[in-house]
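re: that complex we talked abt at group meeting.

here r the seqs, copy pasted straight from the sheet so there may be weird spacing, ignore it
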Amino acid sequence: MIRPEESAITQAVIDRFAQTPDPRLKAIVTHLTRSLHAFVQEVEPTFDEWLSAIGFLTDVGRMCSGSRQEFILLSDTLGVSMLVDAINHRQAGGATESTVLGPFFVDTAPTAPDGADISGGVAGEPLYVDVTISDLQGQPIAGASVDVWQCDSDGFYDVQQPDLAEHFLRARLTSGPDGKVRFWSILPTAYPIPDDGPVGQMLKATGRHPWRPAHLHFRISAQGHSALVTHLFVRGSAYLDSDAVFGVKDTLICDFPRHPPGQAPNGRTLDRPWRSLQHAFVLDGI
Amino acid sequence: MIRPEESAITQAVIDRFAQTPDPRLKAIVTHLTRSLHAFVQEVEPTFDEWLSAIGFLTDVGRMCSGSRQEFILLSDTLGVSMLVDAINHRQAGGATESTVLGPFFVDTAPTAPDGADISGGVAGEPLYVDVTISDLQGQPIAGASVDVWQCDSDGFYDVQQPDLAEHFLRARLTSGPDGKVRFWSILPTAYPIPDDGPVGQMLKATGRHPWRPAHLHFRISAQGHSALVTHLFVRGSAYLDSDAVFGVKDTLICDFPRHPPGQAPNGRTLDRPWRSLQHAFVLDGI
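got the structure back, here u go
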């Protein structure tokens, strides 16, 4: 039961927002007030619990830096990022499904030509990626801008290195007239999201693990089409059924077949086994 | 309408919290997930709006320091602090009503004897405070610990001074055998909450002002009684009907009568007008 003097507080806050000039902002703060107050009514926090919540949010904020976005991690681990993604991709019938951007996207990735090796020479099982970008009618899209980024064999992204001189395992490519983008890289591995901060403490306290299954990130944009932010996951990777950020969708799990040493695409000859990934991305209209 | 694939995300997050060892924490994170996801469903944020929310929370966290608690300000200005306070003081029939602690409480205030001048010599209209602490049966409570703190004539608390050498307008007194606490101070003034940070931006964007009506803070604790955290507001002060943190309750608005120069309590003679405040605090049982 919500007592009259308590619902009066909620109404007073909503009334106070009544003069918000921007109607969208007014709607958001009104919903926020109602939702936040309803949550407090459900949970009935003690003063100390309220103070703990203040302390947790403060710690999350303090953890944020140029190379660490703890609030995005919090949003990811609470499934909010995936929900926002789902809400913004309701009309995607036939198009490739999207998933979270994650905290490691960099808008200034180095450009790379078709067939380039983007591994930066780091150790790992060689991987040849051959993907096609097309529209809903199956027509290849030339000139699409394709950002790709992934972790190394230890599970770290380039931007997590303390003294990063230049980017690696990250590139911006452009699709050819056949809608194709090809590059050499290495097989990504499963990795834990950064868990040495308050989000990691939250995961521990709730009996959750911080791991994500192995995946490559893609961000694909082309004129006349909605930008696509997604992953391709490695079939058979650990944690596909318990991704810490709820990012896995069945249609995004791909085979990465293993090939014996010898002749490889792009004129390469390899003295050890290598993997390949083929995938057909389909972009929605705008 | 909530689509099945979207409610599946909410359920997946709740299921992931199922192994939380502490039952209270499990209830909180489950309610939080449901509430947060329902809010996102109502508001349907765009990706950019989600990113703005992440940026806002990050800014609030970055603003926090040893002398500034921006998340408490956010909780205060959204009425959450008052709601938590109300929920935790439902059984207070007959006892003095509580209100927010605010961000300026200090647990190490200097002790002061009965009748002390706590003004630290700062300019302002002299104020003589004479309050009684009693229980629900009207019996005076001796030995109650009474913290009092207030702003100066410019609206600032001592802890807001850049180079604070010693506390002023802040003291810890102890009630005498008659339950009384008496001290000299100055009349507090209305003041804006710190509005040079993201909470101030939120207030501006929503057409709200940052002002609080003039008040003195009290925190009273005594063995066998619930601690009381409250304010006494100056009747006639501006902003009594629009306190930025929703802290005003009618029963906490007091007269501060003005007296002509001359004989004043505690053996003082004043060459200018002065004010007085009398109030009877009633503490609840535990």
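couple things i noticed - Chain A has two domains: 4-44, 80-283. Chain A has a mean pLDDT of 94.
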